[in-house]
Structures are given as structure tokens and as C-alpha cells.
Amino acid sequence: MSTEPLLKIENEVPFAMPIYWWIHLDDIPLDTLVKPSRHYERPFLAWETVRKLRNPFFDNGTGFEGYLVGVCHSPDEALARLIGLCQGILDNLHRLHRMDYTFRARSMKTLTGECSDVKAMYEWSAQLGAALARLRCNIRQNRRTERFQTETYYIVNRLPMIDYHEEDSTIEQRYLIGFCRAPASRVHVTLQALRPSEQDAWLVAQYIGRFGHPLVRQFLRAGLS
């Protein structure tokens, strides 16, 4: 299996501002948060590898698609499955906060990065974990899914750890992802091409992966414990 050159990602950590101020107000060294977060790095790098480079269906993928290999056989089928999955996540949140429209609005703004409500961050993270747990049940039952996952982790297990540094009241990150050749028949999904009833679900698919970032997961675990 040949591997293409690595891609370097350099940007701000998701929700860097609340993480930065939390560690500084409590006088916690950044490394104290980083060290236990290493446990979550390989799944995150696998997610990013699928989302950015190794996506079997879309050129603007979400990260979920690795679990749909062998289950869905076309981009249209994968998109319908993703919309259904993420609409279920939205329905769960709405049932939990049926009458709290203010929190529901904050949740959507937190999802897209317009605000950083910690309670909403925690709930999106929990919903992501539950969705992935359901999808993982398929891996052992579908040989194509299992093979895709094995190939992805073959790449990921050879990548270096994420490098973090503080800069200008925020936290920056640098990491590498690698990839094998992706199919040429991938499609690009836009909100405008979706029905209005599907657009919020696609936003969930596009953005919920940031709540699986290792530093975000550790921040939520440490800050709410």
C-alpha cells in the first residue's frame, strides 16, 4: 500500500479561547492538559485523515465517512445516511432541552464556533461519542469497513504527536496527516444544494468533529470533573 506525502496542518485549537483562559485562571500549565489528551490523538488524527484527504465519498468530508465504507455505495447514499445520523443527534438535543430555546440557540452557535458555551460543548461531545459508538458496531460486521479502518490506522500510527504552543492569548497546534489515494468520483456538498430541512443536520456533520479534538475532550473532562 503506497502512501502519499504528508499534509501539515497549522491552525488554532478548536475552542482555544475558553481552554486558554481556564488553564491561566487556574494556573495550570498547558502540558498538564496536553499529556492526558494524548490518549485521544490517534482517533482524532484518523478522523482528520478521512475528513481532509482519504474521504471515499466527498471532497469536503466530515470524518464520519470511514464508518460508511461498505455500508453506502455512492455519495448520494452516504449523504442520506449522514443527514439521518445527524438529524438524530439534533433530535436528541431538542428532546433533552425541549423548552429551553435559548440553550438550543447557544448550542447551534457553539457548534459553528460563534460562541463557546461549555455546557453546549459538553453535550455535543457526548452526542458525538454516542454516534461513533453506534457506528463502530458495524466495523466487525463489514469487512470493507474493517479494512478501511485498518488502512487508516496504518497511516495514523506512523504520524508524530500533535505539537501545541501558546501564542497571543490562544493555543495553536501543528500536526501531520497522511493519506492513500482517494476515489476520483467524490462530490462536493453545499448547503444550497440541500433541502432547508436538511441544512442543520449537515452543519452538525460538518462541525461536530471539533468536539472530538483531544485537547477539547480533556478540557471538558478536567473542567467538569
Could you characterize the architecture of this molecule?
The protein has 225 residues and is mainly α. It has one domain. 52% of the residues lie in helices and 8% in strands. Strands 1-3-2 form a 3-stranded antiparallel sheet, with helices on one face. Strand 2 and strand 3 form a beta hairpin. Helix 2 packs across helix 9, helix 4 packs across helix 8 and helix 5 crosses helix 6. The longest helix has 22 residues. It is globular and about 50 Å long. The chain starts with 6 loop residues before the first strand and ends with a helix.
Descriptive keywords:
225 residues; mainly alpha; 9 helices; 52% helix
Q: What is the domain tally?
A: 1
Query: How are the strands of the largest sheet arranged?
Result: 1-3-2
Shape, per Cα inertia axes: globular
Q: Report the portion of residues in β strands.
A: 5-15%
Oligomeric organization of the protein chains = single chain
What count of helical segments does DSSP give? 9
Number of DSSP strands?
3
Q: Fraction of residues in helices?
A: 40-55%
Which stretches are low in confidence, meaning pLDDT under 50 for 5 or more residues running? Answer: none
- Compute the gyration radius: what is it? 18 Å
Average residue-wise pLDDT: 92
Structural class from helices and strands? mainly alpha
Distance between the termini: 43 Å
How would you characterize the largest beta sheet?
A: 3 strands, antiparallel
List SSEs in N-to-C order. EHHHHHHHEEHH
Could you provide a short overview of the structure?
The protein is mainly alpha-helical and 225 residues long.
